[in-house]
Amino acid sequence: MKPTDVHNPNYYHKVVDCQWACPAHTNVPEYIRLIAQGRYTDAYMLNRESNVFPAILGRTCDRPCEPACRRGRLDGKPVAICRLKRVAADLRDDISDRLPKIPSKKNGKRVALIGAGPASLTVANDLMPLGYEVVMFEKYDKPGGLMRTNIPAFRLPEAVLMDEINQILNMGVDIRYNTPIESMKALLAENFDAIFVGTGAPRGKELELPGRHDTNRIHIGIDWLESIAFGHTDSVGEKVLIIGVGNTSMDCCRSSCRLGGKDIKVMARRPRGFFKASPWELEDAEEENVEILVNHAPLRFVIENGKLIGMDFERLEWDKGAKKSTTIDTIFLPADDVILAIGQENSFPWIERDIGIEFDKWDMPTVDEKTMQCTREGIFFGGDAAWGPKNIIWAAEHGHQAAISIHNYCQGVPVTERLPQGTNLISQKMGLSEWSYHNDYNPAARQKMRHVDLVERFKRMNIEVELGFSAEQTAREVQRCLNCDIETDFTAARCIECDACIDVCPVQCLTIARDGEEDDLRKRLSAPAINLTQDLYVSAPLPQTARIMAKDEDLCVHCGLCAERCPTAAWDMQKFELLIPYAGRPVNIESCVLA
Amino acid sequence: MPSIAKPIATHPSLQRNELGLTIRDYEGAMSTLCAGCGHDSITAAIVRAFWELSTQPHMIAKLSGIGCSSKTPAYFVNGAHGFNSAHGRMPPIATGANAANRELTYIGVSGDGDSLSIGLGHMCHAIRRNLRMVYIIENNGVYGLTKGQFSASADVGSKSKKGEANRMAPIDPVMLGLSIGATFIARSFSGDKEQLVPILKAAVAHRGFALVDVISPCVTFNDHEGSTKSYLYTRQHELKATETDFVAPASEILAHIGQNGAVSVTMHDGSVLRFKGVPENYDPTDRSKVQTYLEEHQGKGEVVTGLLFVDETMPDLHEMNETVDVALTKVPYEKLCPGVEALDRFQEDFR
Ligand SMILES: Cc1cc2nc3c(=O)[nH]c(=O)nc-3n(C[C@H](O)[C@H](O)[C@H](O)COP(=O)(O)OP(=O)(O)OC[C@H]3O[C@@H](n4cnc5c(N)ncnc54)[C@H](O)[C@@H]3O)c2cc1C
Ligand SMILES: Cc1ncc(C[n+]2csc(CCOP(=O)(O)OP(=O)(O)O)c2C)c(N)n1
Ligand code: SF4
Ligand code: SF4
Ligand code: SF4
Ligand SMILES: [Mg+2]
User: How close, in Å, is residue A42 to chain B by CA atoms?
Assistant: First the structure.
């Protein structure tokens, strides 16, 4: 194989599974170490750099990092990355003097951001320090988008939400509440230098079945949650049926628990294992005694004397992969309210179709994946508005990329000119067998989140259920992180092929073998390569025998023992730091340190 | 000394042997030897051999003398019995232990200093008695523990770290073993587990004294240019005379026997040593042919490795002495110690 080029930032980045999986590439291991050292403010600021909303995300993030986390491959449970983020946010000091300074002299460019959700807020966060004049148009009288209107207060307290939104708005964003944009044409006429569309995916999917429009007790999930958030809805019937089993459904059923619902059923078409909801959201809902009924397909709403009394369902039987179903029978379930939580759609009735913004056959704008620009120059999309409903962390990442494009565009640089990432690689050796990081493997089990008790939490809509980690839990959880950014770095010329590293590796990562093609080499490793998504690190030929050193990155616990047992320091433990460019802040590739 | 113990994390595909144990169950304490010492690789080979053989850890006895090499029994098979004796005195301790309990698997780990200087006499007599044990000499040409003085295995002309050449003739444990009747003789290299592990398994199966001389570079005091026991020198001069498969008792022998007059030897316990591709005119059961071969090649400066000689016909210590065929612990106390009257009667015979 070709020797691995570790100076390509992607190589080691991929080894940091969590960071690679995070849409915004948050430097997780570094912030976990900072928390371990009690440096909560530093940990918070490091998070803020990439994900902008650490306190919000520390409670609500979709956490794509956790299923990717290496620890999960070793003991079945990933590091509680998200919960630790909240620890940093909860325990940080005042950060006002660490936020970017906003130049009083503006750069003369005016940018319009439509919507005050996380995507637009991120664009503002990145552009304000560069001197832009940012005007944000918001339909409602409050900022935050779905984070405010749909994520219930028992998961995300208002104060937490507002604190991080204000960090951005207070940079001097010109926010115009109660100002829905009703015509893109009209906005274009205002001659902004660039426009960002961060209007989300605001339409809940319909379920057109008999009886749908014969009652006012059938609600669209996201609209219903919104009316709770704005105080327009404060009760629900005793018997509630929620249709669909995604995350919106989980918020609907749990909100029902707090508004008077007693018998709450979530109705799923398919069996368990095919639900869209995140496992932790399901777990939290079931803890609140919400019942989840599988294999039920809605058939009709049953209305008697103009009043909703329930719904008919077909009971289904599925084949193995839950692809084909057969109907067993039909049953009736009583209900006072039915909430439809079967998905969200985009809708852009306010964008004229004759102004150069192309829409595809699904009526979605054509948006470039890298630049976030649509087919009309100078107009950018991000967050749920770009490619349909995603989540907050994707909205933030889209915001960062859109900000880079807007900055390019306003400075006359092609938007396609993307800023390269850089990397620092720095030895962590402090002494003969001493490292700058805690290299021991801690067998601690994943810490369980503590919750407010079941009676107490239902008293009000806005009692935050999760209590956060205690100091002891934090201390244990941080030690579960395997420091995947402290990389085993190999210098072939130094190796004397003594086998010390091979013998000491607890997870049999290392092999000295005759070179070969990847497929063949993977079969000849000390332990079979069971995860082909993980790279093989392959060295140049070794001096004494011309064999090569191969490392299967899959299960390395970054204990550093290979480097400790190496007599020639052919292995070294080097901290990989990914340098991410942001708008107006390119990475100086020349000054990258490559040990 | 490593900063941490080996993490308990393991590879999910870790296999279990017939006893349900993983290879990690055959490890010992963390090594305190110098990083890169050949002895650690031999330790790893021992761990693998016992795991593959599914030997019960508590049926193993580890013995050693003094030296870096002699420290290594602490680094494998935690669950085994162990005795770290005085310098050079491992063979008599092993003899005593084996006499008392013939049911254990004995593995002695010694060094070239421990075995070829102070302990030479003891080793020779253990060989003559054909004491059933695996006897490993971790051979680095120096006294590692006492900072690198030449040992009795240092070759003439081999240079010390400071640059002076050794002038005394070496003792070659392989040639010595051949000349005093050793019944199993092998030489290997710490950097070649593919060769060493099957040799160790065969050594365990052998029903007498199994002498395994393993070139094991001292990375701190004898791995420089001019040394004849360095990693590089060994790799450049190694001649693999034989290649051996160890086929456990129950398993079938599938592969065909090569040309070159290759041989297979059936061991006492039914296992088979299959020699693939031995040189022409080489017969690993013919002492004098082996001797001739070694003289010829070692004369050319080659380091001959492989399972070099085996004689499975010789009786071991217990057979020669017609001792009881179980461990003394299993002999009822009244029989083991029949009392004063029995002793008196016995002594009467000598009057
Ligand atoms: C019930 C529910 C729960 C969720 N839970 C989570 C969660 O726990 N974690 C997570 O990561 N994600 C969650 N999401 C998804 C997440 O909230 C969204 O992906 C994210 O908020 C999208 O951000 P955005 O900035 O693209 O749009 P939005 O947050 O939707 O913000 C769009 C903003 O634009 C405004 N707007 C719309 N049209 C106009 C217009 N024409 N003129 C002016 N203003 C306009 C809207 O009022 C809104 O304020 C959830 C979504 C739902 C529905
Ligand atoms: C009776 C006695 N004499 C001398 C010593 C000093 N001594 C300790 S180890 C050693 C030699 C060890 O050499 P070797 O057996 O080759 O082991 P290595 O360290 O090279 O593995 C000597 C002479 C001693 N410990 N005891
Ligand atoms: S163990 Fe730590 S660094 Fe590694 S993937 Fe998990 S959280 Fe990230
Ligand atoms: S410990 Fe060092 S010298 Fe020895 S094989 Fe490993 S990398 Fe090579
Ligand atoms: S001194 Fe030599 S023999 Fe002893 S541990 Fe160090 S390298 Fe090994
Ligand atoms: Mg020695």
Answer: 28
Cα–Cα distance measured from residue B189 to residue A248, given in angstroms and rounded to the nearest whole number? 65
Search chain A and give the residue with CA nearest B218.
A498
Q: Is B42 in the pocket of ligand 5 (CB under 6 A)?
A: no
Cβ count near A569 (within 10 Å): 12
Q: How far is CA B99 from the centre of its chain?
A: 19
A422 by Cβ neighbours in 10 Å (0-12 / 13-18 / 19+) ranks as buried
**In chain A, what is the straight-line distance between the N-terminal and C-terminal CA atoms, in Å?**
24
Contact status, residue B191 vs residue A499, Cβ threshold 8 Å: yes
Is the ipTM higher than 0.90? The answer is: yes
The span from the CA of A97 to the CA of B304, in Å, is: 73
Q: Give the pairing type, strands A174-176 and A536-538.
A: unpaired
Q: Determine if residue A455 is left, alpha or beta; phi over 0 gives left, psi from -120 to 50 gives alpha, anything else beta.
A: alpha
Within 13 Å and on the Cβ side, how many CA atoms surround B23?
A: 23
pLDDT digits (tens, 9 = 90+) for A127-185: 999 999 999 999 999 999 999 999 999 999 999 999 999 999 999 999 999 999 999 99
Domains and CATH numbers, chain A: 9-97+442-480 (1.10.1060.10), 100-202+346-410 (3.50.50.60), 204-344 (3.50.50.60), 486-579 (3.30.70.20)
d(CA A227, CA A207): 20
3-state secondary structure of A434: strand
User: C-alpha angle with apex B112: B111 to B117, nearest 5 degrees?
Assistant: 115
Cα–Cα distance measured from residue A8 to residue A554, given in angstroms and rounded to the nearest whole number: 19
Please name each of the domains of chain B with its CATH number: 23-319 (3.40.50.970)
> Contacts by A27-30 with C-beta closer than 8 Å and gap 24+?
A27/A485, A27/A577, A27/A578, A28/A65, A28/A79, A28/A81, A28/A481, A29/A481, A29/A482, A29/A483, A29/A484, A29/A485, A29/A486, A30/A485, A30/A577
Do the beta carbons of residue A526 and residue A511 sit within 8 Å?
A: yes
Instruction: Give the global pTM.
Output: 0.94
- A110-136 pLDDT tens trace: 999 999 999 999 999 999 999 999 999
- For residue range A207-226, list pLDDT tens digits in order: 999 999 999 999 999 999 99
pLDDT at B257 over 70: no
Q: Are A259 and A235 in contact (CB under 8 A)?
A: yes
Q: What is the pLDDT of residue B180?
A: 98
B4 to chain A: which residues are within 8 Å by CB? 439-441, 559, 561
- Mean pLDDT of the A360-368 span: 95
A244 lines ligand 1 (CB under 6 A): no
- Rounded Cα distance, B238 and A44, in Å: 59
Residue B258 beta carbon below 6 angstroms from any ligand 4 atom: no
Report which of B306, B233, B240 is spatially closest to residue A496, judged by C-alpha positions.
B233
Instruction: State the alpha helices, DSSP H only, in chain B.
Output: 38-53, 68-71, 90-100, 112-113, 120-128, 173-179, 193-205, 231-237, 287-299, 317-321, 333-336, 340-348
Position of tokens 């003398």? B65
- Whole-angstrom CA distances from A268 to A250, A264, A338 are 12, 13, 14
Structure tokens, A340: 């439809």
Which two three-digit tokens encode residue B338?
């029949």
Token pair in block for residue A254? 């749990």
A568 to chain B, closest Cα gap in Å: 8
Cα-based distances in Å from A215 to A165, A265, A304, A306: 38, 20, 10, 7
Query: CA A489, CA B7: separation in Å to the nearest integer?
Result: 20
